[in-house]
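re: ur question from yesterday

yeah so i grabbed the chain u mentioned. its 498 aa long if i counted rite. heres the sequnce exactly as i have it in my notes:
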Amino acid sequence: MNEGIRSKNKLGIRTGNQYLLGLQDDREVWTNGKRIKNVTTHPSTMRCAETLASFLDKQSEIKYKEKLTYLDDNGIRCAVSFKPPRSVNDVKFRGQAYYEWAKWSNGMFGRTPDYKNASIMSFAIAKSWLDTGIEKGLTHTCFSENIQNYYDFVRTNDKVLTHTLVNPQKSYQVALEGKYDDEVALHVVKETDAGIIVKGARLLATLGPIADEIEVFPSTLLKGNKDNIPFAFAFALPISTPGIKLIARDTYDHGKSHFDAPLSSRFEEMDAVVIFDNVLVPWERLFMYREPLLCNQAFSKTNAVVHMMHQVACSKLAKSEFMIGLMTSIVSASGKDKDISIKNLISEVMMMTETIRALLYSSENQAHEDEWGHYIPLRKPIDTSRNLFPDMYPRMVEILQLIGSSSLMATPAEADFNNDLKAYIETYFQMSNADSKKRISLFRLAHDVCISGFGSRQSLYERFFFGPPAIMKAGYYDLYEPKNYEKRIEEFLNNSDN
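ran it thru and got these structure tokens back, copy pasting raw so excuse formatting
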């Protein structure tokens, strides 16, 4: 059955139009009580899909082609995020590609395809590990072969992936105990000759409505006992698979012009809860099964978490630079750029940005070979970055609000330049170093960052998208290995010369 994946057309990098045509597959996406018939034409999803299509087109442009793509051993041109890193320079090359992708949205498009590409590449590199926990008698499938075939399929067809990790819970206490409720959590109903049947829900699939495929991987909070065997699996399916239903939240794209809503009109990537209504997962699409302990270790043992952190750090650097540019543009236009208090505020953001840059530089330049024979960025620096940014970004937003103050709300719309108010707008909305249109465009951009629904979602996303901050920091503590530092303390205290 694996032949079904291997035999798919190998197109290499796709055009934006090819991507948009691929989304017209009768997928079941719901929002605001109604089913979306076509995500490429529906107001809630259309413009973000068009934005992502334009990003995919860039891969073929002369300016970006050599930066963002590579030729594989068969001469197929693929995205760099799929390229296994075999040296420190390869790690840096991947980082440069991540950064280029992030700059196109200034870090405001959180789920660009390179993020999940990195995880699939990681699992393919460490494919042998997936077979280590296969139960005796489970002969339906070969997990290492499955992930290799899937990686090749996604890579050579430039598929856009979303993913979902978290099971819903009715009881917070049950969740703390690491148990799942099979009334709501995604679980295996039965096995068939064709594959497993799964039922339940998963939270939260960002980009889900406009992705090609969904990667369903285990939560890292899964308890390794037999009670959780029905919840222990990893697989990937097309979004259009029968029985998959996406319930998307209200859109933050309200149909405004790019002038009035410069970010939400372009980068509303949408979040969705995924319902699996007795969905068939073919054996060849299954990568892990019936092994809770292995599922719990999946991201760490394959180093997927490190490669994903790398993409995230590059994206956050681009986002931080954008915040500096927006703040300094506003204060330069207003003439406040000489004010010491303003400089003090913006310098905070500058130092945050340089912290992310330094950590990224340290991680890439200390990249090292892993047990799978490929190179990974040094974990501690980018893990530090990952743990700092959920605190950094809300502070950046707060500083932007302090700088913008009431001007963030007192912003006329683009249409006001085309009516009887135009003369008043041009007169009363000037700034020291900017005409009214420039001023309003800057503040509408700032409004979209820190006041709008889109902006509030960005802040929440940065706080939680890699996991609850407390759990992340606790994990950081556990992995830090402070014993050498403790030894120094012991030696100091035992030194009789002191």
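noticed a couple things. The longest helix spans residues 304-334. also The chain is about 45% helix and 15% strand.
anyway ttyl
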